[in-house]
């Protein structure tokens, strides 16, 4: 079978050839920043399966160009850059790889919290600038005790639950908002369920975002949420950048409604240096010092996670095309409304 990997970025795992050589032939197209770039339709037509490697880049080709394609896989968790409805109308399932970096992202969310609330980022920067003068325990403005503080989770899926368990290990009280979890999950987990984002913001000392990006969640954490925030709240986002309204966050940080934020993802990536919040961060404006930590959409990353992500994406394809077993499908509603799923050969 021929698998077309688009928006590919290194490192390429040599393990794939060892595991799937003889069964799978790869065609790899690198990620490009050129908005006008389009893949040669001949390459598209030759593909039995498609993998979109990027979390943010869209497919530089038309869905209809993939005449033979039986399955599409987003090599990662988020799939907001794939047209689920268009593929479903053609009877092509779209799948993701939801389990490759769960622990890494949960660890990173807690690390962002600690960078602010234990000052690990701020202390290091102060000492780097002035090893003697920066030797001050009060150099970090957001230090607090975690025991009995409240950790709020927006979206208690795999990663949100993993982050919640880590917060609970710090003796934090855990609350969550997730309208799609069935009733009773709060009893099974021992966490407190809240039924509105504003209630979560009002109750929490730290809020960690773990919801998917879709039309419902785009800009979801915005001005109304920040207006309801508990004084001193720290926001962490390791999900998708557009879930948090960056303009509203800038205003909330500027006027003190939000104490701090740790962001691994942004609405525009790489970071938009012209945005006032990013500009203030880069310029080290005094009002923001110690209150914002940025990382470069790296929460998912470890060498082990990269190997798992690439291997599991191919395993999803092989399971479907060779064995007729569909896993991790994210466009089932559109498949039901559209053409029937094409059976494997």
UniProtKB/TrEMBL annotation:
EC number: 1.1.1.95
Gene3D superfamilies: NAD(P)-binding Rossmann-like Domain
Positions of the D-isomer specific 2-hydroxyacid dehydrogenase NAD-binding domain: 110-299
Annotated keywords: Oxidoreductase
Pfam families linked to this entry: 2-Hacid_dh, 2-Hacid_dh_C
Single Gene Ontology MF annotation: phosphoglycerate dehydrogenase activity
InterPro entries (UniProt xref): CtBP, CTBP_dehydrogenase, D-isomer_2_OHA_DH_cat_dom, D-isomer_DH_CS, D-isomer_DH_NAD-bd, NAD(P)-bd_dom_sf
Location of the D-isomer specific 2-hydroxyacid dehydrogenase catalytic domain: 42-331
CDD domains: CtBP_dh (cd05299)
Family recorded in the similarity comment: Belongs to the D-isomer specific 2-hydroxyacid dehydrogenase family.
Database matches in PANTHER family: C-TERMINAL-BINDING PROTEIN
Name of the protein described by the UniProt record: D-3-phosphoglycerate dehydrogenase/C-terminal binding protein
């Amino acid at each position: 079978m021929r698998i077309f990997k688009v928006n590919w970025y290194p490192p390429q795992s040599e393990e794939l050839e060892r595991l799937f050589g003889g069964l799978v032939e790869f065609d790899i197209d690198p990620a490009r920043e050129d908005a006008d770039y389009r893949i040669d339709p001949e390459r598209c037509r030759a593909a039995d399966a498609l993998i979109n490697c990027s979390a943010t880049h869209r497919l530089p080709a038309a869905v209809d160009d993939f005449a033979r394609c039986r399955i599409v896989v987003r090599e990662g968790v988020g799939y907001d850059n794939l047209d689920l409805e268009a593929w479903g109308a053609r009877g092509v399932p779209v799948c993701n790889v939801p389990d490759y970096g769960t622990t890494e992202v949960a660890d990173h969310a807690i690390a962002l919290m600690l960078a602010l609330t234990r000052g690990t980022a701020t202390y290091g920067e102060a000492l780097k600038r002035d090893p003697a003068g920066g030797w001050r325990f009060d150099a970090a403005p957001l230090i607090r005790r975690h025991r009995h503080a409240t950790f709020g989770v927006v979206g208690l899926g795999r990663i949100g639950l993993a982050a919640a368990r880590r917060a609970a290990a710090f003796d934090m009280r855990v609350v969550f908002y997730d309208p799609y979890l069935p009733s009773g999950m709060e009893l099974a987990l021992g966490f407190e369920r809240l039924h509105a984002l504003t209630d979560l913001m009002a109750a929490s000392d730290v809020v960690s975002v773990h919801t998917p990006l879709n039309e419902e969640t785009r800009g979801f954490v915005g001005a109304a949420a920040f207006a309801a925030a508990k004084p001193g709240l720290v926001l962490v986002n390791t999900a998708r950048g557009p879930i948090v309204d960056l303009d509203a966050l800038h205003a909330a940080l500027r006027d003190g409604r939000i104490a701090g934020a740790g962001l691994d993802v942004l609405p525009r990536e790489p970071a938009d240096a012209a945005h006032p919040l990013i500009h203030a961060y880069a310029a080290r404006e005094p009002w923001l010092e110690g209150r914002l930590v940025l990382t470069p959409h790296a929460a998912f990353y470890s060498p082990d996670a990269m190997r798992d992500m690439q291997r599991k994406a191919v395993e999803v394809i092989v399971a479907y095309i060779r064995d007729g077993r569909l896993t991790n499908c994210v466009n089932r509603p559109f498949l039901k409304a559209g053409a029937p799923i094409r059976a494997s050969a």
